[in-house]
Design brief:
It comes from Caenorhabditis remanei (Caenorhabditis vulgaris). It is built from 10 helices and 12 strands. The protein is α/β, with parallel strands linked by helices. It has a single domain (about 10-315), classed as NADP-dependent oxidoreductase domain (TIM Barrel), CATH 3.20.20. The longest helix has 14 residues, at about 30-45.
Length: about 325
């Protein structure tokens, strides 16, 4: 968990020796048309990590953007780090390799650099029924696809410490990365310490407090009702530090995660903001500065993943009580 001080080449070395860039482009809620332009702009700005998921329904467009960037000579495939994630129905017994192959076909790639279990919960195809597949069985499938070479690294997302521990206890391929909601107002110190103790890198999503989550609509067109939450971007200590460093509050929040040794995947389709989010390598936040930022002691999860409620592997069951 080294302090990240340098430029676009900054990376975290995973336990299998693979180097993962510390900053990437998040693509949740990015439509296919938007994401092609966003991926191209991000790579030209210096990003080398692209984060997507089967459930985002934009893998095909991202594949098109990557193919065009490679053909134009902007970047080589081996210089990119592509992450995608298996959705709940792909975690059901016998489904994972097919899910990964479908993602690879859309991405027009022979392998992904990181493949994550998007959730710990397996469901049937239309998510109308729980599939009681324990995380041990889910991880056995990840071990198998890792050994095929279709994924250079494997990991989990939205799993709790106990679930990760059970997967590690199998003694199979270790978990290389854990991607979780993590931001100033949900700092996840216990999870980060747990992962550090087990040599698992951590990727923060919603690093800015996910201000765009309120615009999310289900495939049916329905908008979700989000519980009120304070804004990380408006925190007085964040604003003060931004002014002191001649940076934006968003850049301070991103640097806060980087200086904790984490990888970040801020989402944007705005080219100027994509560039702004990457322009965080010319300042650092000291441990004292991090402690000052955390003075609020706020700890509020924004994404409770309510669809997991009642599933035997609901990662956040204790938080629903």
């Amino acid at each position: 968990f080294q302090r990240i001080m340098s430029s676009s080449s900054a990376a975290i070395t995973l336990s299998n020796g693979v180097k993962m860039p510390v900053i990437g482009l998040g693509t949740w809620q990015s439509s296919p048309a938007e994401v092609i332009a966003a991926v191209k702009a991000s790579v030209k700005a210096g990003y080398r990590l692209i984060d997507t998921a089967a459930v985002y329904q934009n893998e095909e467009a991202i594949g098109t953007a990557i193919k065009e960037l490679v053909e134009e000579g902007v970047v080589k495939r081996e210089e990119l780090f592509v992450t995608t994630k298996a959705w709940t129905h792909e975690l059901a017994p016998g489904k994972l390799e097919g899910g990964l192959r479908a993602s690879l076909k859309k991405l027009q790639l022979e392998y992904v650099d990181l493949y994550l279990a998007h959730m710990p919960t397996a469901f049937n195809d239309d998510m109308s029924q729980h599939v009681a597949s324990p995380v041990e069985d889910v991880w056995r499938q990840f071990d198998a696809v890792y050994k095929t070479g279709l994924a250079k690294s494997v990991g989990v997302s939205n799993w709790n410490n106990e679930q990760i521990g059970r997967a590690l206890a199998l003694g199979l391929t270790p978990i290389h990365n854990s991607q979780v909601e993590l931001h100033l107002y949900f700092p996840q110190h216990e999870h980060v310490d747990f992962c550090k103790a087990h040599n698992i890198s951590v990727t923060s999503y919603a690093t800015l407090g996910s201000p765009g989550r309120v615009n999310f609509t289900l495939p049916t067109g329905q908008k979700l009702d989000w519980a009120p939450a304070p804004s990380d971007l408006e925190d007085k200590n964040v604003v003060a530090l931004a002014e002191k460093n001649k940076k934006t509050p968003a850049q301070v929040l991103l640097r806060y995660a980087l200086d904790r040794g984490l990888a970040i995947i801020p989402k944007s389709v705005n080219i100027s903001r994509i560039e702004e989010n990457f322009n965080v390598f010319d300042f650092t936040i000291s441990q004292e500065g991090i402690a000052k930022l955390e003075e609020s002691k706020i700890s509020q999860r924004l994404f409770l993943q309510d669809f997991m409620a009642g599933h035997p592997e609901d990662a956040f069951a204790n938080e629903r009580k």
